[in-house]
């Protein structure tokens, strides 16, 4: 089973999940699953459509916001807004969780959230976002 890394009460991130893990995540209380991985990025990667079908069948919403490299400002804004407006906790995933938390943090920073606090939250979840958010250690 994939490990969820809790960032806030509203957001957790993880590495790639399967359709079965998406359904289990909904059973664990996630109301929205965000897929930050482009389809076909790696051999053997589960299809986004299968993950979406499983998440929706289990009762969650699903959003595909693919990120290649660094998230664009538009994707970052969309990620942060999706988390803020979800009807419950959100699980965002990509290959390792890094693009997912980066997109969210960039969107939050653009909205005026304190960058040091975002770096602290990310560090508690195991991610170093200081360079991305321009925060000195």
Structural write-up:
This protein is an alpha/beta fold and 137 residues long. The protein has one domain: Protein-Tyrosine Phosphatase, Chain A (Alpha-Beta Complex), CATH 3.90.190.10. Helix content is 43%, strand content 13%. It is built from 6 helices and 5 strands; from the N terminus they run E-E-H-E-H-E-H-E-H-H-H. It has helices spanning 19-27, 48-57, 73-85, 98-110, 115-124, 130-133; strands at residues 5-6, 11-14, 32-35, 61-64, 90-93. The chain has a 5-stranded mixed beta sheet, sandwiched between helices. Helix 1 (19-27) packs parallel to helix 2 (48-57), helix 3 (73-85) packs across helix 4 and helix 4 (98-110) packs antiparallel against helix 5 (115-124). The longest helix is centred in the middle third of the chain and has 13 residues, at 73-85. It is globular. The relative contact order is 0.20.
Labels describing this entry:
137 residues, alpha/beta, Protein-Tyrosine Phosphatase, Chain A, five-stranded mixed β-sheet, 6 helices
What is the secondary structure topology, with strand pairs?
Blueprint: E1 5-6, E2 11-14, H1 19-27, E3 32-35, H2 48-57, E4 61-64, H3 73-85, E5 90-93, H4 98-110, H5 115-124, H6 130-133
Parallel strand pairs: 2-5, 3-4, 3-5
Antiparallel strand pairs: 1-2
**How many domain regions?**
1
Q: From the helix content, strand content and strand pairing, which structural class follows? A: alpha/beta
Give the CATH H-level superfamily: Protein tyrosine phosphatase superfamily
Number of helices: 6
Write down how many β-strands occur, each being a DSSP E stretch of 2 or more residues. 5
Largest sheet: 5 strands, mixed
Helical content stands at 40-55%
* Multimerization status: single chain
The CATH first-level class comes to Alpha Beta
Low-confidence stretches: none
Order of helices and strands: EEHEHEHEHHH
CATH architecture descriptor name: Alpha-Beta Complex
How are strands sequenced across the largest beta sheet? 1-2-5-3-4
Straight-line distance between termini: 33 Å
Rg, alpha carbons: 14 Å
Strand content: 5-15%
What is the average per-residue confidence, as pLDDT, rounded to a whole number? 96
Bulk shape: globular
Q: From the 3D structure, determine the CATH topology.
A: Protein-Tyrosine Phosphatase, Chain A
